[in-house]
Specification:
With about 350 residues, the protein is of the alpha/beta class. About 45% of the residues lie in helices and about 15% in strands. The chain has three domains: about 45 residues, Orthogonal Bundle (434 Repressor (Amino-terminal Domain)); about 130 residues, Response regulator (Rossmann fold, 3-Layer(aba) Sandwich); about 140 residues, 3-Layer(aba) Sandwich (Rossmann fold). The strands form three sheets. It has a six-stranded parallel beta sheet, sandwiched between helices. The chain has a four-stranded parallel beta sheet with strand order 7-6-8-9, with helices on both faces. It has a two-stranded antiparallel ribbon with strand order 10-12. It is elongated and about 90 Å long. The protein starts with 8 loop residues before the first helix and ends in a 10-residue tail after the last strand. This is Putative LacI family transcriptional regulator. GO terms for molecular function: DNA-binding transcription factor activity; transcription cis-regulatory region binding. InterPro entries: HTH_LacI (IPR000843), LacI/GalR-like_sensor (IPR046335), Lambda_DNA-bd_dom_sf (IPR010982), Peripla_BP_I (IPR028082).
Length: about 350
């Protein structure tokens, strides 16, 4: 039969004939209550269905023990691995998570930020939507001295601590690898250049071309979305280039897998006709044929570090305002898709 009201410490105290303060101390497992009495109180609490009111307790302490996490999408292997890293650290430190996603929409991101602020999260971990143009909607967190850690997609010169990789170096390394395989006409498929991750990878691509005496051709850079339909359209644009590229650096593994399939369906041999490098080291990179050369992007570690930074700040053991930016190591993983046969 359903209860009319929640069981309180006063109900437990009345049933056992002890004071409410004794019940409270026993439920907190303090040494101020004898072992026999504590066991009796805990058993009665279980029997009556008592639930700890953590919300009220946290409210008194001005803490919710909850972190907000805002991501730009949920269907990405990279984002899934980041969330797994955040959740691992949060569970270890008894923090709950409220996860919101912007669906790559700045307006929704602003609404999410406002919602998480009013849910009284203790801090926020965020990755920006593709069309976010400023960080004004995070100002309420700053004004209340609530820590904000941005990861992956950030404004590198703006507020908040950041956890990123060196996207310039990753773009350079990917392009340099293709050049070393003999590629001279290298295309680049990427997404919104408003975001640091894509603009920096493009900058690395351009620098590698320049360092090897290869002229930059803006027709070889395709900027579009990374979903399946966008990737297929990008592949068709590649096929219209004349002469055809002999290498492609693609800024996302799923996009690369779709592009590869469209190219193979059109009779292009990979890597003999076109060598391809992706980005993220997603699971799909290991199962497509040929297996995809890619940049290993440490999402799980990124999530762990972002969570540790914000929780350490909340516990007073570090200050994210003095940390600013943490740059993680990324690595080129060479597989069959880029290994041309050079005579």
């Amino acid at each position: 039969m359903a209860r009319d009201k929640d069981i309180t410490i006063y109900d437990i105290a009345t049933q056992l004939g002890v004071s409410p303060s004794t019940v409270s101390r026993a439920l907190k497992n303090t040494n101020a209550v004898g072992n026999a009495t504590r066991k009796k109180i805990l058993a009665t609490a279980r029997e009556l269905g008592y639930q700890t009111n953590t919300f009220a307790s946290n409210l008194r302490k001005q803490r919710s023990n909850t972190l907000g996490v805002m991501v730009h999408e949920l269907r990405s292997n990279f984002i899934t691995s980041v969330l797994s890293g955040i959740e691992n650290v949060a569970a270890e430190t008894n923090y709950d998570l409220i996860i919101a996603h912007s669906s790559e929409n700045a307006k929704k991101e602003r609404a999410n930020a406002n919602n998480l602020f009013h849910k009284r999260v203790d801090g926020l971990i965020a990755s920006l939507a593709s069309d976010t143009s400023n960080l004004h909607h995070f100002k309420s967190f700053v004004d209340k001295s609530l820590p904000v850690v941005f990861f992956d997609r950030v404004f590198e010169q703006d507020l908040g601590a950041k956890v990123i990789i060196n996207n310039f170096k990753a773009g350079y390394d990917a392009t340099q690898h293709l050049i070393r395989q003999g590629c001279e006409r290298i295309a680049h498929i990427t997404s919104s250049l408003n975001r640091n991750v894509y603009s920096e990878r493009l900058r690395g691509y351009k620098a590698a071309l320049a360092d090897n005496g290869i002229a930059f051709d803006e027709r070889m850079v395709i900027v579009d979305g990374l979903a399946e339909e966008h990737a297929a359209y990008s592949a068709k644009r590649i096929l219209k280039l004349s002469p055809l590229p002999d290498g492609i650096f693609i800024t996302n593994d799923f996009c690369a897998a779709v592009v590869m399939q469209v190219l193979k369906d059109a009779g292009i041999h990979i890597p003999e006709d076109m060598a391809i490098v992706g980005f993220n080291n997603d699971a799909i990179s290991k199962v497509i044929s040929p297996k995809l050369t890619t940049i290993d992007y440490p999402g799980y570690e990124m999530g762990q570090i972002a969570a540790r930074q914000i929780i350490s700040h909340l516990k007073g053991t570090s200050n994210i305002n003095t940390t600013n930016t943490i740059i993680l190591h990324s690595e080129l993983i060479i597989r069959e898709s880029s290994l041309k046969q050079i005579s």
